[in-house]
Amino acid sequence: MALGSVRSRCAGLWLAWLAWGACIGVAQAGQGFQREVEPNNSAATATVLNGNSVVVLGYLFPGSDSDYYSFSAGAGDHVYAATMTAFASSAAFNTSNSVLDLIDTNGVTVLESDNDDGFFSATSSSIAGHVLPVAGTYFLRVTPSPATSQMRPYHLHFQLRSGTPTAETEPNGFFSAQALPASGWVSGAITSGDNDAFRVALNSGDTVFASLDLNPDGTGAWNGRVGLSAINETNPLAFSDDLSGGPPASEAFFWTVNASGNYDVYVDANSGAGANAHYNLSVSVLPNTPATSSCTTYASTGAVTIPTGPGLVSSTINVPGNPRIADLDVSIDLTHANLADLDVHLVSPAGNDNGLFSDLTGSTTMNLRFDDEAAVPPLGSIPVIGIYNGVALQPELNYRLSWFDGENAGGNWRLDIRDDTAANGGTLNAWSLTICQAAPICPAGTTPVKFFSQDFEANDGGFTLNPAGNEWGYGTPPFAPIDSCNSGTGCWKTALSSGFYSPGVNETIISPAISLAGRSAPIIAEWAQKYQMRDAALDQISVEVRNAGGANPRRLFEHLDGTMTDVAIGNPSLDIDASAGWGIHTSDISSYAGQNVEFRFNLTSSTGAIAQAGFAIDDLSLTECQVTDRIFRDGFQ
Predict the structure, then answer these.
(1) Are the C-beta atoms of 596 and 511 separated by less than 8 Å?
(2) % pLDDT > 90, the chain
(3) What burial class does residue 434 get, using C-beta atoms within 10 Å of its C-beta: 0-12 exposed, 13-18 middle, 19+ buried?
(4) Which positions ≥6 away from 62 have C-beta within 8 Å?
(5) How does strand 34-35 pair with strand 53-60?
(6) CA distances from 285 to 120, 203, 205, 256, 288 (A)
(7) What is the C-alpha to C-alpha distance for residues 207 and 375, in angstroms, rounded to an integer?
(8) Residue 17 three-state SS
(9) Cα separation, 594 vs 170, whole angstroms
(10) Contact 588, 522 (CB under 8 A)
């Protein structure tokens, strides 16, 4: 996912350019996330949900953050919402325990609150079927528990329903599924031994959000569950059942499929259903949303034997040309006697060595896609049948495919498979990369005119250190994993001469003032960066644009992920330094047109032992997208 660590959509983007990919530098893929817009920690600053069926990618960061979202609704509308928190980076101060509040039109009164009715994490949240009393603007609020924690990241699924659900038609069990009505909204009841199934056609990459209201008529909650069948089959694939009790009780379920076909969303009871086992079921299908209009899949040739371990086997895919990555997915088809033996990494042509998964359990086969934008985290505790087949998963906790974003993808990519125990072997049947190429920097009908460029080859670009004498250095980085510049031999890097940044620092470099006088939207900032950091709960890096002198700052990038070192991989075990970049990053800064601006690059670290390389930047430029005169476009100049 492009710029996966950027929370805000490109603030200040002019309406005239909204059709242009929504926002340069923030590609959407998979579920087609809406992004939260910070600050949104009050009803007055709430991020407006951009439809009645939405999934939001958000971050509760730093500690004590809260995120508000607003939506308009009519009297009698029903709200279905849930959080997916299981992919929150594992570290101190970071949690998967969310609290979801539905707030009245006054922005204060809590109509319903949920802490522990969600899916994938027992402490995620679900609200299903709450009926709104009057027409107006309502709010959803997501907070961590405890309130001082962080949550990096979370997904917020939202569906607003109007009218009345369609009643189920019996029989509609596993062998006689009822077609899901076009509305995606049904009502029904479960009797003892009963199950209800609703068939829906899904395309590869589609995501299902199923929200189950277990007490729609107020007669008493019951212990129901909701799930999904395997493709074109009647058997359950996965289900949500948090053993919730009294009202308001609900279940939430999310799944991203990797194969097109018919699936059944089903409802049943975890234990004997009583006389009041009524439900309303809302099913939303979020279509697969490619990051850009130019996506290509590159496949391996030939199977590779995974010998009995311990050992390492690799397979290579060559990507021709020089496509710049906006989004990267990885598909893997393999068999192995014990998947828990395997540690698997992806290595880019630039040498970035980042993990995909380590020591997965519960299966001997794998045929799936790894996708940062998938709804499913790879957790061994999920009650599923064949989870590693026919599904799109996020990479394992603390790994990010977005660390490859902005890289030049041309060259040889390598899949490294480490088998860390003896007596078990297998076969890598096939694997592939799907690379969505970054869109042009300027929209159609405009011509890019670069009016500022600094590649740091002739000198340090006049950048200043704050405080003076800090660890940022100008030159060629000598230590892996940051041992080069993006271009040439000159760039800036933290701790250039020592390799690892120091604990307890707050260090910045600031560009000279750059005039945007006479410039008009769109104005695009572009820079190259590479980094390796500790968990963002401990250490942060950021890129910021502001008025010369420091006023009116706006964050363009921040690191929000986990520690970028993979510890004790393979046998004999080794630690692998992950890294992001060199990647080209872009951001629309049109709101600063006509002003003088400067760019601020910062690293802040806490105390404690550090073994990460830090942050490097290169090749800063500014481009104005000038409207092309029609005569010149048609070639009659």
Answers:
(1) no
(2) 72
(3) buried
(4) 150
(5) parallel
(6) 19, 10, 11, 10, 9
(7) 7
(8) helix
(9) 66
(10) yes
β-strand partners of 358: 343
CA distance 37 to 45: 9
Question: Between β-strands 614-627 and 491-493, what pairing exists: parallel, antiparallel or unpaired?
Answer: antiparallel
Whole-angstrom CA distances from 115 to 96, 100, 216, 281, 565 are 11, 6, 19, 20, 32
- pLDDT computed for residue 634 by the predictor: 43
Say if residue 212 is exposed, middle or buried (CB neighbours under 10 Å; 0-12, 13-18, 19+): buried
The contacts of residue 104 (CB under 8 Å, 6+ apart) are: 110, 111, 138, 139
3-state helix vs strand vs coil in the chain, percent to 5:
5, 45, 50
Q: From edge to edge, which strands make up the β-sheet containing 236-240? A: 178-179, 195-202, 261-269, 224-229, 236-240
- 255, 375 in Cβ contact below 8 A? yes
> Which amino acid would we find at residue 354?
N
What are residue 601's phi and psi, to 5 degrees? -115, 120
Q: Token digits for 6?
A: 């950027």
635's CB contacts (< 8 A; 6+ apart) are none
What's the pLDDT score for residue 63? 85
Tokens standing for residue 534: 């500790």
């189920």: which residue's tokens?
A: 168
Given a contact cutoff of 8 angstroms between Cβ atoms, the answer to whether 151 and 561 are in contact is no
| Angstrom distance (rounded) from CA 472 to CA 478 | 14
Q: Give this prediction's pTM.
A: 0.91
pLDDT at 384: 57
Tokens matching residue 231: 């493709």
Residue 362 phi/psi, 5-degree rounding, is: 100, 5
Residue 86 and residue 395: Cα distance in Å, rounded?
12
Residue 274 tokens read as 């009583």
